Amino acid sequence: MDLHELCARLHRIQVSSMCDADKSLPVCDPLIRPMLADVTVAGPAFTVRAEGDLLGMVAALGSAAPGSVLVVDSGGDPRACSGELFAGEAARAGLAGIVIDGFCRDLRGIRRVGLPVFARGATPNSGTISGPVVVGTPVRFGGLEVRPGDVVFGDDDGLVVAAADRLAAVIDKAEAIERTEAGVAEAMATGTGLYQLTNAAEHLAARDHGRPSTFGYRSTTG
Amino acid sequence: MDLHELCARLHRIQVSSMCDADKSLPVCDPLIRPMLADVTVAGPAFTVRAEGDLLGMVAALGSAAPGSVLVVDSGGDPRACSGELFAGEAARAGLAGIVIDGFCRDLRGIRRVGLPVFARGATPNSGTISGPVVVGTPVRFGGLEVRPGDVVFGDDDGLVVAAADRLAAVIDKAEAIERTEAGVAEAMATGTGLYQLTNAAEHLAARDHGRPSTFGYRSTTG
Amino acid sequence: MDLHELCARLHRIQVSSMCDADKSLPVCDPLIRPMLADVTVAGPAFTVRAEGDLLGMVAALGSAAPGSVLVVDSGGDPRACSGELFAGEAARAGLAGIVIDGFCRDLRGIRRVGLPVFARGATPNSGTISGPVVVGTPVRFGGLEVRPGDVVFGDDDGLVVAAADRLAAVIDKAEAIERTEAGVAEAMATGTGLYQLTNAAEHLAARDHGRPSTFGYRSTTG
Predict the structure, then answer these.
(1) Is residue C152's pLDDT more than 80?
(2) Quick check: A108 contacting C, CB < 8 Å?
(3) pLDDT per residue over B162-199, tens digit each?
């Protein structure tokens, strides 16, 4: 599966479904959260170091391929790494989003632009634009090591980052989980309970008696 | 007063009014906050341990009485303890809410369901569903010890938890405070100042002169 | 420039523009954030100590001049320093806002009132109203020392606090930055890229070759 197809398919599902398909997917620190509601971002990482200086951001905006996600390591600097202008340029250039282990600013402008921006919060001041430029190297991000080209996948629940192959290996399973859960949610909306839709009662009884058992949805809901 | 009546009356007032009626009511860590706006939750605690495993949640959803609040102790585990499906089942089963000292997921789905869910935030991955089941025991929650049957009362401002008797003992006073404050708010909306509505000036003068005094609203506003 | 004119001009720009005009402006801890969206606050600080007791707040509401911002130091106390009633009285009295290094309560009421309130979050319980009154002294606030009369300027991105003279010295520059950036944002909205609107390419090349260079917008956009 090519990267374009992978990202397009990720865009149609939830991050939580991928995490269910592969329980060991690397998840970022949940304090890095979307700055606007109801967003999904999926794309290859273009990494940037922005420790109090934003020339790397300027360089990245000029060289990242459309569809990329800028993955910004602020190195713990308290100043904003992106505002409305960078978000606007990223949107104009067709980038998929900007995710920052650090702060952003111009929250109103970012919301107006509509580009998915994830950060630890907002602060009004930003760094210099002097350099040096450090882009395209592995960076620390939200407790993970992110390499250029790793795929960033995020929504309201948070961010996962992994090699494209690893995500491609489980996306069929994630899509199947979504179909099953959509059926379950639909059945629940019409009044059917979780215990009728799953083997919960049998599973609990089996565990009580020390018998092996796996929790799951009844096949009729599959 | 029976529990049903207590919870129905709590539902009509603010948590802050109960905290004014009893200044020593136990308040949870404010980092545990509602995941949707404009919610109120009031009900007896059904406690669950969910330290990286959700079988206790499944068991709790099958056995908690309608009106209960699932009080979930994640033991500091970084994975989500509830998503859309558990929230949907809780709503279907008539539970009053789910409060988590830990994380949830499926924020969009939880908001769609509309059940009050409180948590430290969202993260996309969840634990196993293998067991053991630990429910109905005292748990640590947001800095408090919560026992099964304690009443959980929360709104946009946060959560208090206390024995039903303790809340029942002060709810009359809390309702009276709300009536007084509603009158004050109404008077302020028409331009009357806080100093005219309270004994603020006299109270400040008395304190200046070392005379005992208690701040309060003028009886005409009561 | 008098204080009234300064605050009126601040009200029409973003905090981030002032931070660009003076990169060393003191910025508060970003965990102190607005409790309602799309707010701007600008006014001289009226300082209050409220370490578990709110008589200082009552005194401040009775003596702060219209246009003032109550700057509240909770001394780390976990209880709320302001709710709907104090916010309502502040609005009625023509104050510009309440900023709290600590917690507030009555979030729904505060949003109804519409006064800009900044805090670390919400919690339902508040302190006593017994005294002593400590107002009008220098306070610690979000990592800064704030003196009475310092100007507080905040919006969705956060808060800066500085002497009026210091802000007055750079507001022309901040307004010029806003005009330039508005032109840039407009050009970008019609499809022109950041690289065409700035000297980004030349600046990056100069830095690569060790030549001095300053990043900036092209004069045609100024």
Answers:
(1) yes
(2) yes
(3) 999 999 999 999 999 999 999 998 998 889 999 999 99
* Helix, strand, or coil (residue B14): coil
Note whether A115 and A80 are within 8 A (CB): no
Locate C9 and state its tokens.
């001009």
* Residues A145-199: tens digit of each pLDDT: 999 999 999 999 999 999 999 999 999 999 999 999 999 989 988 999 999 999 9
- What would the two tokens of residue B56 be? 């206790």
B126: number of CA atoms within 13 Å, CB side? 25
Please check the confidence at residue C219 and state whether its pLDDT lies above 80: no
**β partners of residue A126:** A80
**Tokens standing for residue A206:** 């089996």
Chain B CB contacts of A201 under 8 Å are: 62
Nearest CA in chain B to A196: B62
**Among the listed residues B138, B90, B83, C11, the one whose alpha carbon sits nearest the alpha carbon of residue A188:** B90
Determine the 3-state secondary structure of C144 from DSSP: strand
CA distance A148 to chain C (A): 21
Question: Mean pLDDT in chain B?
Answer: 95
CA distances from A182 to A8, A185, A188, C139 (A): 20, 5, 10, 54
* pLDDT tens for each residue of A52-93: 999 999 999 999 999 999 999 999 999 999 999 999 999 999
Q: How far apart are CA C82 and CA B119, in angstroms?
A: 24
Say if residues B87 and B69 touch (Cβ distance below 8 Å).
Answer: no
Cis-peptide into C132, omega within 30 deg: yes
Amino acid identity of B8? A
Is C88:C164 a contact under the CB 8 Å cutoff?
A: no
Burial letters for B106-131: b for 16+ Cβ neighbours within 10 Å, e otherwise?
bbbbbbebebbbbbbbbbbbbbebeb
Retrieve residue A67's tokens.
């569809």
Cβ-nearest to B30 among C121, C128, C133: C121
- Residue B135's SS3 state is strand
CB B198 within 8 A of CB B204: no
Question: Per-residue confidence at C218, pLDDT binned at 50, 70, 90?
Answer: confident
Q: What is the C-alpha separation between A42 and A26, in angstroms, rounded?
A: 15
Listed residue (B153, B86, B90) closest to B103, CA to CA: B86
Measured CA to CA in angstroms, residue B9 lies from B15, B41, C213 at distances of: 11, 11, 68
**Are C188 and A88 a contacting pair at CB < 8 A?**
yes
Q: Sort out which chain A residues have CB atoms less than 8 A from C27's CB and list them.
A: 78, 123-125
Closest residue of B to C86, CA-based? B194
pLDDT tens digits, residue range B64-99? 999 999 999 999 999 999 999 999 999 999 999 999
Answer yes or no: are the C-beta atoms of B151 and B7 closer than 8 Å. Answer: yes
Measure CB to CB from residue A156 to each of B93, B108, B125 and give the nearest one.
B108
